[in-house]
Structures are given as C-alpha cells and as structure tokens.
C-alpha cells in the first residue's frame, strides 16, 4: 500500500489545565497538538506515525472540508486510543506507533487540519508528548513518471559495423555476457545472511586496545 | 481485520527472510530437488505434491520447529519504521546506561591489558599450537599463573549500576508518594503480581502433576510419573518443538531431558555443526586471547571449587574457549541491549576495513560466567552438542541476566519483580530486613544472575531450568527467590544484620524447588 508523506506544520503543544498554570501544584495531564497542512489541498488521510513519549491515551480530531458553502466541521476520528496499558509503568512509553485509516471511527477524507489530544493521568511523569509525527496520504496507484524524450522515441537503428575476420560474433558474445550477468545478479540477490565466520582480517588478529566509540 | 492480516503477511515475509540463510533452507531445497525423482510427484500438480511429500516425510515438522524457534526468540512482525537500536532496547535512558556500563568494562579490560603488558590477542607459535592440541582434552591439568588476572566485574558491581538506574522523566523526588519504591530498584517497569503469575504458571498449580513433587518416593508412580514419562516419549517420537515446550512445564524425566531440551532449542547435530565446532577448536589453537585467561580464572575460582561440577572442568574449557571465537553469536546483539566491543588491527586505528570485534563473539565473561555451562555437562557428554546447547541457551536466556534492558525477562525486571513480590506478600519481613540494612535484593541478586546455578542441588536446578525452557521466560527465577525468602522468613525475622541474613540464606542446597514455588504461588494465604 503506497503512501505519500504530507508536509505538515506541527504547532507547539498547548497544555489544558484548570486554574493558573504557573501557580497550580500539579502538572497538566492533557496536551493538545494542532497539525496544519499549509499549501496542501484537502486530502484523504492514510496513516499517522509517531514515536510515543510517555503519553497514555490519544484522541484525534479532524477538521474536514464538506463544501464551499458549509463551514468545515471537527469530527473525532480516534477516541482514547490506549498507548500505555499501565500509565504508571514504562510499558509502551517510548514505542513507535502507526495508526491507519482503518482504525479510525469515521471516514477521514478531505482533511484540512488535525488535532491530537494527549492524555497522561499519572502524576509520576515529568512530561509527555509525541515525537516524529508524520502524516501520510494514499499514494498514486501507478507511478506517473515522465520519461525523457529519447527513451520514448528511440532513434532509428544504426547500421552495425562489418564483422572483422577471426573475432567471435559480437551479438553471440554479448548475449552470453548478458546471461552471465543475469546469473550473477541472481546470486547477488539471493545472498544469504549467513556469516562466513572469520573474525580475523587476512589471518591477522593482532589488536590494539579496545576502542570506546 | 485489516491490521491483523497486514501484520500476518509482514510476519511471514520477515520470517522467510530470517530462515533463508539457514541450513534448513538449503536442506529443504535439496529435498525438493531430490523428490522430483519420486513417482508420486506429478508435473501437473508439482507444488501440491511436493508440499504433501514434505508433510509425510517429517520436513514440514522441522520447518514448523524452526519457525516456532525463531518466534520464541523474537516475536514478529517488526515494524519496518523502527530503527535497530529500538529493537535492542526501546527505552533511551536504559540504552544510555548500558552504554556507560560497557564503557567501564572496556576501560577495565584495557587497563588490565596495559598493566600486565599482555596483548588482547596473539597468534600462537607452532610449538605452542601442537602442545595445546595434545592437551585439548585435559586443559584442566594446566596450572598457568593467573594471580595477576582479576575478573572484569562481579555481580555485585553490576548490582550497584542497576541501583543507580534512573529515568530522567520520572518523579524521583524525596517525598514519599504512592509509588515510592522501597527496594533498591527505582525504575517503574511493569512487573506481574501473583494473580498474573498464577495465570502464567498455571501448570504449576496444586491440581496438576509435577516432577519434583509427584515423583517423590512416597507417591506411587502409577498416579502420575509413569503416564508423564509415556507422554514424554511420545513427544520425542513426534519431534514437535512446541509440544516439547508445553510438556517440560511439568518437569522432564531425567532420561528424556537431554533430547527434550535439544528439541525445544531446535538443535539437531548435523555434520555441519560438528565441523563448525572443529573449526572453532582450530581458532582456539591458532590464536590466544586475553579473554582465555579470564575464562581460566573464572573456572578455577567457581566451577572447580564446586562439589557437583569440578569433574567437568575440562569440558568447561572446551566449551567456553570455543564460545569466545564463535562469530555467529554476534547476531544475537540485534535484540540484546548490549553491543560487542570493537577494536582495530595494530597500526590501523580508525580504518574501517581493519575493525574487528573483540572477543570474536562480543561477550566478555564475568565472575561466575562458567556456571551457565556447568549444569549442562550433566546432560550432554559430546562436546559439540554440549557447545550448541549452551550457545542456544545463552542467546535465548542467559544474556538477559547481565545486560541492562526493560525486557520482562531482563535482570532489571527480575529484580523489581522479586522486590515487589516480597514487599507485597511479606511486608513485615521486607520492612524488618530493610530496617537492619539488609535489603533483600543484595542477597538474592547473585542467585538470579547465575540462574541459581551453583546454589541449588543439581537435580533441583535442572527442574528449575525445565520451567525456564517451558515458559520461555526467566521470571520464575524471581518467583523462586521470593519463595526462598518466604520459606526462611521465621529465621530471617530474628536476624539483626546483613551478615546474619546472608548466613541464614547461605546454603540453598537442601531446598526442593517445586514445592517452594507451588506453595508461594498457589497456597499462600494473603
């Protein structure tokens, strides 16, 4: 399933907290990250990938384009997706997560904006967020590459040079060489991951000290 | 569901990739070619006929065993977006801690090297090579001067590193919170509690027969033992790894244990394996490594002094010296948080073509390392098979006991599991020991790091290792450690110092492992 990265602008996280952020004792348990897509038309969301950092639950809302006349609406497409089964312990805390459109609650076509709502109810963690956020849309079904002109309009065949006496037929040699090349490509492609087992370099294992890097 | 299907196809693709480089793949190819001679293979239905042939000739079972073996070591699918260091260890701060610990070990080895003016590796002169070849089966008679060598580290040094392990994103404040860890380990890993352990170790329950309990002399063998042995023989005939793994959860009869363990670890002694071992032996003869002296010293200090294992001293050298030269062990570093130490050929510092790993298998032995091999000597007397079994046990289980990782079978999780079990189910004992300055982990750590080898009687140890293989997890070590403390709780409540507590728990050789585990998990009133 091909997918194409959509360039996005991830705004800074906004903490949601009751009361004054500066004077309140506890740390915020809810963060909101807005993701906009400047210069991109409304697209169909295929996949979202990110690296978790101590977020326990994730909700995602999308703002979808309906038509020119009606206002774009916010819809929840993922509700309280659990990233950490036990919010107080490390399980799932730094995992790589991939969410596909099949896991979403609603149709995610014509996306204008994304909003990620992160929740971490445990007071034990100093901070939490998601990193390396990437949004993908459906890639084209077949690659639409343009070929250079000379490839799609080959030049007419040139007259081959006359055969020189005593030398083998060039077309026969070239076909044999082609076959050998194809064989070596096959062998190279089916290379095993098996190590040879040599630990020395050309029979020499005379070492300096162990290196720290 | 779409996600499950795509996971399955990814798993299959990754599994095929893994198995492509193996012996089994080559053998299956050869068998497929050879089967074309058979009359029941028709060209029209070639694929189906060959598949049927594999099923009936037992090759499908071998393939099943290989797939099961790979999945036991590392679950699939692996998310392709994940970088390799994340597979080694997902938590960044643990990776960093492991890196610093390794640096310390390297510094220690380097300083030993320069102080004693002994090279890390040297090619043996021909005379010395011949001498070693003659003495190969009795290397224990050698008495080299090892007084200047000291082990690179001991388990208690490693414990200090684990005690200082901190998550920078964790609230490590001084004030007592609802999750303050009163033990030594201060990282919030997820560990199981007794209800979850009861679910995991359900075959150890009171109503299920066990070897180690229901084969004692008072119990008539018709009740359990005879039937269990009969099932074991059937499992061996079927040659099914998964069935063998399920079977040994109730213990393995002594006569069948060697074959059952080989089946679970998917070890079959092919001529290639024997040749490989001989090649390693040649490597030992040609090159002398500094690590060899560390191995000698370790064997002399630990196994040679042990009443049960001193007879196997020569075997231990034959296995451990070859183990150090085995580059196939390097592949386990893909899922081990540790990394193999590197060095350069003399005079070519920094040039990548002359970079090598030292020792060739990347594992630096520590004090007590040889005790991982010693119990296996009771099961296998053929050096190449003994070697293969040990190598497989190491890359599946033992490596987790001396590297810093968040894996549920890693030593950090085992320590935390032990402390949590003790604190939750024996709070008075835990509190008392803490008050007298005898943190329980300080006593039980050495048991767990060695997987109880050298502390329990051999027959009991083998019953314990049956369950490690059966459940594919080392968590049972932490449960046993807690069960031992529970058993000696009355005496421990009366001690007033760490030394006295150590004395109460110094001798575990009379303990019976299975009753202790059963009582702790299933029969303790909480």
TrEMBL record, chain A:
It comes from the Eukaryota. InterPro entries: Nicolin-1. This is Nicolin-1.
From TrEMBL, chain B:
This is Rab-GAP TBC domain-containing protein. Pfam families: RabGAP-TBC (PF00566). InterPro entries: Rab-GAP-TBC_dom (IPR000195), Rab-GAP_TBC_sf (IPR035969), TBC1D19 (IPR042507). PANTHER family: TBC1 DOMAIN FAMILY MEMBER 19 (PTHR16110:SF1). Residues 251-472 form the Rab-GAP TBC domain. SMART domains: TBC.
């Amino acid at each position: 399933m091909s997918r194409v990265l959509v360039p996005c602008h991830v705004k800074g996280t906004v903490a949601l907290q009751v009361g004054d952020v500066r004077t309140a004792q506890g740390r915020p348990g809810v963060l909101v990250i807005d993701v906009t897509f400047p210069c991109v038309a409304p697209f169909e969301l295929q996949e979202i990938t990110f690296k978790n950092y101590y977020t326990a639950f994730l909700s995602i809302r999308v703002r979808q384009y309906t038509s020119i006349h009606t206002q774009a609406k916010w819809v929840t497409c993922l509700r309280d997706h659990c990233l950490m089964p036990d919010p107080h312990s490390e399980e799932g805390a730094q995992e790589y997560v991939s969410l596909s459109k099949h896991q979403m609650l609603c149709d995610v076509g014509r996306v204008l904006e994304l909003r990620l709502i992160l929740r971490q109810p445990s007071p034990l963690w100093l901070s939490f967020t998601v990193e390396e956020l990437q949004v993908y849309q459906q890639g084209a079904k077949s690659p639409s590459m343009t070929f250079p002109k000379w490839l799609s309009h080959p030049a007419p065949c040139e007259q081959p040079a006359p055969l020189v006496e005593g030398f083998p037929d060039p077309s026969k040699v070239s076909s044999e060489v082609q076959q050998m090349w194809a064989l070596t490509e096959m062998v190279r492609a089916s290379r095993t991951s098996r190590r040879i087992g040599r630990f020395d370099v050309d029979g020499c294992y005379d070492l300096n000290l162990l290196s720290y890097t | 569901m779409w996600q499950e299907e795509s996971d399955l196809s990814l798993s299959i693709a990754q599994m095929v990739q893994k198995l492509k480089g193996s012996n089994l793949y080559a053998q299956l190819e050869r068998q497929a070619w050879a089967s074309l001679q058979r009359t029941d293979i028709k060209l029209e239905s070639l694929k189906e006929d060959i598949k049927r042939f594999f099923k009936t000739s037992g090759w499908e079972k071998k393939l099943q065993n290989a797939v099961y073996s790979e999945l036991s070591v590392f679950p699939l699918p692996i998310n392709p977006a994940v970088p390799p260091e994340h597979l080694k260890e997902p938590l960044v701060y643990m990776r960093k801690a492991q890196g610093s610990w390794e640096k310390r070990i390297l510094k220690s080895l380097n300083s030993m090297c320069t102080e004693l003016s002994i090279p890390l590796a040297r090619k043996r002169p021909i005379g010395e090579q011949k001498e070693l070849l003659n003495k190969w089966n009795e290397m224990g008679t050698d008495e080299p001067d090892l007084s200047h060598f000291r082990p690179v580290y001991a388990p208690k040094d490693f414990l200090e590193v684990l005690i200082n392990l901190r998550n920078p994103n964790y609230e490590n404040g001084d004030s007592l919170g609802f999750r303050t860890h009163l033990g030594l380990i201060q990282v919030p890993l997820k560990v199981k509690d007794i209800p979850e352990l009861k679910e995991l170790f359900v075959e150890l329950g009171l109503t299920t027969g066990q070897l180690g309990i229901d084969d004692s002399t008072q119990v008539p063998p018709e009740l359990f033992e005879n039937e269990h042995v009969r099932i074991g023989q059937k499992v061996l005939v079927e040659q099914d790894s998964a069935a063998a793994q399920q079977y040994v959860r109730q213990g393995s009869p002594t006569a069948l244990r060697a074959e059952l363990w080989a089946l679970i670890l998917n070890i079959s002694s092919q001529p290639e394996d024997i040749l490989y071992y001989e090649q390693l032996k040649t490597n030992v003869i040609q090159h002398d490594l500094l690590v060899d002296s560390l191995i000698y010293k370790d064997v002399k200090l630990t196994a040679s002094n042990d009443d049960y294992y001193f007879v196997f001293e020569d075997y231990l050298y034959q296995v451990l010296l070859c183990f150090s030269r085995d580059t196939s062990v390097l592949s386990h570093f893909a899922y081990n948080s540790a990394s193999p130490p590197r060095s350069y050929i003399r005079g070519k510092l920094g040039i990548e073509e002359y970079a090598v790993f030292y020792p060739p298998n990347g594992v630096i032995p520590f004090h007590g390392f040889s005790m991982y091999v010693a119990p296996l000597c009771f099961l296998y007397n053929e050096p190449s098979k003994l070697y293969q079994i040990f190598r497989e046990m190491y890359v599946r289980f033992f490596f987790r006991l001396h590297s810093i990782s968040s894996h549920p079978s890693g030593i950090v999780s085992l320590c935390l599991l032990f402390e949590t079990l003790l604190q939750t189910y024996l709070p008075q004992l835990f509190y008392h020991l803490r008050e007298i300055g005898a943190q329980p982990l300080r006593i039980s750590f050495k048991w767990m790091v060695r997987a109880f080898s050298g502390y329990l009687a051999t027959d009991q140890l083998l019953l314990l290792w049956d369950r490690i293989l059966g459940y594919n997890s080392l968590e049972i070590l932490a449960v046993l450690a807690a069960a031992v403390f529970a058993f000696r709780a009355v005496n421990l409540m009366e001690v007033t110092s760490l030394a006295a507590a150590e004395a109460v728990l110094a001798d575990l050789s009379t303990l019976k492992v299975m009753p202790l585990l059963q009582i702790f998990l299933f029969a303790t009133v909480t």
